[in-house]
Write a structure and sequence with these properties.
The chain is α/β, with parallel strands linked by helices. The chain contains 17 helices and eleven strands. This is Sulfotransferase.
């Protein structure tokens, strides 16, 4: 598939064109799709299969749908942006590889001490977003080479065909949409401008409520994975950020069992193993590591510190008016009413 240099793509008004290449197929597709001006960007997001993507992510969707075929042993962390992705990636990696890094000698060499979690569980979104439509995924295997550890922000819809013929497992975490929105706003504002005062919270709020943001509607995204978890509980582990914060030990034990790497009776009886893992993956510990304070993610070209802000529950009250909170709660109640899902 021939790639098109960025200078030939400037007329599409995409910011990514300054340093990315796109296939002719992507360019043709973009020209045919509904588009909206992206918040705090000079380019657009595009509606594809009922969700919204930037041009780079859209190329990733197309390439992934065509070329990614899940293995039975694949483990995929799936999240809407800013719902606890970094924490969940760290937990999954540590659970699966804990025997390899469990001795006193190897603890100091744990990959999380020198690598941001996003490097240890790479996004399918990024792996497939280049002009190489079929990237090599062998580097994604766990230390014991038993599982490929992957992640995605993509909704379930574009992923469904890729996983339907396998027994791969999905680990999904969602969060109160009010906190999700505030964290999303901070994240995008931080990577696009240094001054939050120039970033209209109200403007992004309107787009978020309407679902016209990167990766589409929060509520539709959550519902896709929630409904699959009800239909195939052995395939989808559905977790809420607030529940994980309230009872981390309980949910990490359940997560380990789902991943196929349960804690042994000896590990649980001796005590300390789960607590040690939670401490390793905690916000305070990860955010203060040198790699996360001053490191940079080469694919996204942003600082690792961007992924660590506060990690608290209920922070939205410091940013949203009562009317804004009421509107988000109303949308959530209406969207989830028929599906038995309550967040918080």
């Amino acid at each position: 598939m021939a790639s098109i240099p960025s200078k030939d793509f400037q007329h599409h008004g995409t910011e990514e064109a300054a340093h990315r290449k796109f296939t002719q197929e992507t360019i043709n597709l973009l020209s045919s799709l509904p588009k909206q001006k992206a918040w705090m960007r000079s380019d657009y997001i595009y509606q594809y299969q009922n969700f919204w993507y930037g041009a780079v992510e859209l190329q990733g969707v197309v390439n992934m749908q065509r070329n990614y075929k899940a293995l039975d042993s694949d483990l995929i962390v799936a999240t809407y942006p800013k719902c606890g992705t970094t924490w969940l990636k760290a937990l999954c990696f540590s659970i699966i590889n804990r025997y390899h890094f469990s001795t006193a000698t190897s603890k100091q060499h744990h990959p999380l001490l020198t690598n941001n979690p996003h490097l240890l569980l790479p996004f399918l979104d990024h792996l497939y977003s280049s002009t190489d439509p079929n990237p090599d995924l062998t580097s994604c295997f766990s230390v014991n080479n038993h599982n490929r550890l992957l992640a995605t922000h993509f909704p379930l819809a574009p992923l469904a065909e890729c996983i339907k013929d396998s027994k791969c497992k999905l680990i999904y975490i969602c969060r109160d949409p009010k906190d999700t929105f505030v964290s999303f706003w901070h994240f995008i504002a931080k990577i696009r401008t240094k001054n939050l005062e120039n970033c209209s919270l109200e403007g992004f709020y309107e787009q978020f409520c309407e679902g016209v943001v990167e990766y589409g509607s929060f509520w539709d995204h959550v519902l896709g994975y929630w409904k699959m978890s009800l239909q195939f509980p052995e395939r989808v582990f559905f977790l809420q950020y607030e529940e994980l914060k309230r009872e981390p030990n309980l949910h990490v034990i359940k997560l380990a069992e789902f991943l196929g790497h349960p804690f042994s009776a000896e590990e649980l009886e001796s005590g300390g193993v789960v607590e040690e893992l939670l401490k390793l993956c905690s916000f305070d510990h990860l955010s203060n590591l040198e790699v996360n304070k001053n490191g940079k993610l080469p694919v996204l070209e942003i600082g690792c510190s961007t992924f660590f802000r506060r990690g608290e529950v209920g922070d939205h009250v410091n940013y949203l008016s009562p009317a804004m909170i009421e509107r988000l709660d109303k949308i959530t109640a209406e969207k989830f009413l028929d599906y038995g899902l309550k967040l918080g």
